[in-house]
Amino acid sequence: MSASVLFDAPGPRGRRRMAISNALGAVVVLGILAWVLVVLSGKGQLAAGLWRTAVDPRAWQYYYLPGLQNTLRAAAFATVGAVVFGILFGMGRLSHLRAIRWVSSLLVEFLRAVPVLLMMVFLNILFGVTLRGVVADSAFTAVVVALILYNGSVIAELVRSGVGSLPRGQAEAGVSLGLTRGQTLRSIQLPQALIAMLPAVVSQLVVVLKDSALGQLIGYKELLRSAQILASGGGNPLQALFVAAILFILLNVVLSWVARRLARRLSSRTSGKTATGSGIGPGIAVPRTAPGVTAGG
Amino acid sequence: MAGFFDVLASYDVLGAFWVNVQLTVWGALLALVLGTVLAVMRISPLLSLQWAGAAYVNIVRNTPLTVIMTFLVLAVWTQLSVTLSRDFTTNFFLFAVLGLGAYHAAFVCEAIRSGVNTVPVGQAEAARAIGLPFLSAARIIVLPQAFRGAIAPLGNTLIALLKNSTVAAAASVSTETSSVMKTMIEIRPDYLWEIFFTFAIGFVILIIPIGLATTWLSNRLAVRR
């Protein structure tokens, strides 16, 4: 429903009133911003020196860019791993063997309910203490594995619902061609489900990127942690965090845009609906009732 | 196993979960109020309010919660010396609630907007036909139906909020689950698996009823059309 259904197309008087209210609304919004700036300058936070150290080329060279690189590295590994995990366990949940189906369902539902941060804290100690020497960089590995486990289980649901949202005729056609049910799944249903879920996987990347910032709490030097370290040297947390937040926002806005473009482009390529989800950060990523995503388990 | 129970008994595990539950309840209330206001702004006829609402949602949704929490403590508390409570611990608790509420308000707003989408156009037209101005139409006709249609996504947001309450660790709330679990497994790594599964299963137990309740409620309250 477009928002405009809620109100009439305004007449001349309405338009005048709306113009006035708009101006008022703009004044209020700008007023809040101005008030924030006044308070900030009152606290001396607008001092050029604080901002200069926050956007200094050396700050970029030694803090933001390495931090960004670590964030992207963790996100890249985690995304690839999560897709593989998701396809494996998504197929597991569709298996005709009851045991495989149950084990996959149990694991997926469990991993979706446990906070990512708890997994990271646990894995960090597991890799750092118990498996010391086997795993080189415990914080990095903990961040990546925790992100794979959580986002992989979300993607497993996407696979399952993607296959579920295909028309029944697809499977029937496969079986009538003489394929087994497993072959039908692999060569007819899964490819379509994968294309349909591609936009959702891209928007899941937003969640992966945001969740990688949890690595800060276990000492992984991603973007947020680098900004914090920079701030503790420069005494300018407000400014350094501001820069880090802008970087995160830009990155994620671009990803969301790519996801929307992909969804529009691919919507005609499959029999199922292409799934779009909005990431919510360490939590449920795709609403269970989103188009193409049936109510999960 | 007896040794593990001694470890368990020497920490206030239930108390830690209680802190997360409290964070969730207050955070959810704040998010609901703020999110509803944002949703009304986004569907309002005023362009300036639409833009402000959209800007808030897009900025907050794309910022990691960890950044928001760290920002509140490091920048707002340390630098701007804004204090929410005289009590040191309560102060951090309130900052965490503020962060959780502000972050999830963006998702509540989108959930309510998705609920508004379930309201048939005719309802809004009927509201206009009997002469209701925008705010009355939204308050009396559209929002009550939108809430009923938005229960499932709101439930998902609540579940996410409960899990995200562990991020209060970034706002120096040291009594909540992830901080307590961190202390426990750092001191007793020999009981690593037992401790982790205790906390993990605690969350499973908390989350399953929410999921079941929202599914049941959304079926029960759905407006039959």
Question: What is this entry, summarized?
Answer:
The complex is a heterodimer of chains A (297) and B (225). Chain A is mainly alpha-helical and 297 residues long.
CATH class of chain B: Mainly Alpha
Instruction: Give the overall average pLDDT of chain B.
Output: 90
The assembly state of the depicted protein chains is heterodimer
Number of distinct helices of chain B: 10
**Topology-level CATH name of chain B:** MetI-like fold
The arrangement of helices and strands of chain B along the chain is HHHHHHHHHH
* Structural class designation of chain B: mainly alpha
GO molecular function (chain A): transmembrane transporter activity
Protein name (chain A): Amino acid ABC transporter permease
InterPro entries (chain A): AA_ABC_transptr_permease_3TM, ArtM/GltK/GlnP/TcyL/YhdX-like, MetI-like, MetI-like_sf
Domain ABC transmembrane type-1 (chain A): 68-259
Describe the protein in words.
The complex is a heterodimer of chains A (297) and B (225). By secondary structure, chain A is an all-alpha fold. Chain A has a single domain (53-268), classed as Orthogonal Bundle (MetI-like fold), CATH 1.10.3720. Chain A is 73% helix and 0% strand. In chain A, helix 6 (138-164) crosses helix 8. The two termini of chain A are 30 Å apart. The model of chain A is unreliable at 283-297 (pLDDT under 50). Chain B has a single domain, classed as MetI-like (MetI-like fold), CATH 1.10.3720. Chain B has ten helices and no strands. Chain B has helices spanning 2-9, 13-43, 47-61, 65-79, 88-116, 121-129, 134-149, 151-164, 177-187, 192-221. The termini of chain B are far apart. In chain B, 50% of the residues are buried. The model of chain B has no long low-confidence stretch (mean pLDDT 90). The interface between A and B is large, with 67 and 78 residues. Chain B: Keywords: Amino-acid transport, Cell membrane, Membrane, Transmembrane, Transmembrane helix, Transport.
